[in-house]
Amino acid sequence: MKRKIGPALAASAFLVAGLIAVVYSGKVPLGVPGEWEWLRVKAAPPVLGMLLAAAGVAAYAGYAALGYRALGVPSRIGLRETSWVAGLVASAVALQVLIPMGAADEYDLTKWAYVHYFHASTGYYQVAKEQAAADPWKFLADYPRWIEGQDALHIGTHPPGLIAMHCALISTMERRRAAADFLNAAMPPSVTVAFRQLEAIDRKPLPRADRAAIYLASLITLLACAGTVAPLYLLARESLPPQLAWASAALWPLAPAANLFQPGADAAYPLLSATAMATAAWASRLRGTTGLGTWASAGLAIASGATMAFGMMFTLAFLPVGLIVALVVLATRSISAARRIEVVAWIGVGFVAVVASGWLATGADPLAVWRWNLRHHARFYLEYPRSYFAWLVANPIELAVAAGLPAVVWCAIGAAADRRYVPRAAWCTLGVLVAVNLTGRNMGEVARLWMLFLPPLFTALGVGLTRLGGGPRALFATVILAGIQTLGLQALIQVVYPI
């Protein structure tokens, strides 16, 4: 089987090289012409920055290979695994700081200041600063009525979570001057320069508290996105041995979408979706035990529901996540149907408890908010018509590019070689995404909008790698290829702010 590793890696290399060549040529649209296309970067990346980013990818590939070798002995989750996964989280954070250093000027770490500030990119900071900061609780209480009059873009299709987060960060930085000063002093030079450029554009100073709040929002996104490797490992580990779970998690920090869309909030959501799925999967597994395991199962199920409810404060994309979670539980063959339903019920308890608590705390009816969000989302396609069949084909291609073609190759091999061994989370997610695509719920920008569905798909990666006898060297090569794709796309495509 090891003789097949070479052709598989060669196929990944061919796909990566072909993708970069096609994007570089400028002859193929990055979307559907006349409806939505990703913009292109015209400036060249800095040589030194690209070398630093490449060195970071190489060092991370080495750590991934070492971890794969160290976890080669099947075992229960213990201190040894925990230590390696903690190191993976730290390595992922460092890597996702180094990768943008290889981008062109103003597409590098300067985006940590730009993305949250520009209204055309997100708009949540501007709403928080101009409309909500004076009395956040009143704004939240009035949100069901306020959202009714909003547009069909970012603000109108989302619950108030991001606005509330920016209010909280601004308020905290205004009250904690020492913390604000520390964050301002600790910013990378390129981020500091970016804030000065924003002041020059607006011809007015940006308060130090606001600078710190925006920077902190970017740091939170970074930590959440990189930290997704932990729940992703646990999700895979629920049904796979350590090596396979490690391989699945190790590729996540190199996913193009997870890097190019930072510090947009969409890059933070995979942490929540992976956590909800991992806790639900383990709740199902433990429900087959007795005593303490039963209580642990209920606790994990409640945590899964609570995590999804928290996610619903930010985006309604957690509705299909909830469907995936339910399918993961119901597909658990090791427990009876009655116990599966019991786990789903506990998940519902956690979800309802958090939603009800938020309703009581703010006075805002979440059902009314979600209803208006869905109406605005439906209105978007009336105001910006899309071609159903064109996006039906384009969406899967864009999703594969967003995940990283080397990862997709191993996932496909895993699904084809031993579909019964692939974790049920991957199959449930794939089924829901096919249904969502067929219904036309998302026609465009799936690299951003579907990012939170990528982690469970990655659980098939380790199966493909090991089924062909791949070892540390194969994982090392795969990480390098994934890094080449991400660095190449970063140098060619602009995705996070429209300037």
Describe what this molecule looks like in 3D.
- The protein is an all-alpha fold and 499 residues long.
- The protein has a domain at 2-40 and 255-489.
- It is 70% helix and 2% strand.
- The strands form 2 sheets. The protein has a two-stranded antiparallel sheet with strand order 1-2.
- Strand 1 and strand 2 (36-37) form a beta hairpin.
- Helix 1 runs antiparallel to helix 21 (405-417), helix 2 (47-70) packs antiparallel against helix 13 (242-250) and helix 2 (47-70) packs antiparallel against helix 26.
- The N and C termini lie far apart (49 Å).
Give the CA-CA distance, first to last residue.
49 Å
Question: Per DSSP, what share of the residues sits in E-state strands of 2 or more residues?
Answer: under 5%
- Derived structural class: mainly alpha
Provide the spatial order of strands within the biggest beta sheet: 1-2
Q: What are the secondary-structure elements, in order, as H or E?
A: HEEEHHHHHHHHHHHHHHHHHHHHHHHHHE
The coarse overall form would be globular
Q: Please report the number of helical segments.
A: 26
Largest sheet: 2 strands, antiparallel
Runs in which pLDDT lies below 50 for 5 or more consecutive residues are none
Helix content: over 70%
Mean pLDDT: 92
The count of DSSP E runs of length 2 or more, i.e. the number of strands, is 4
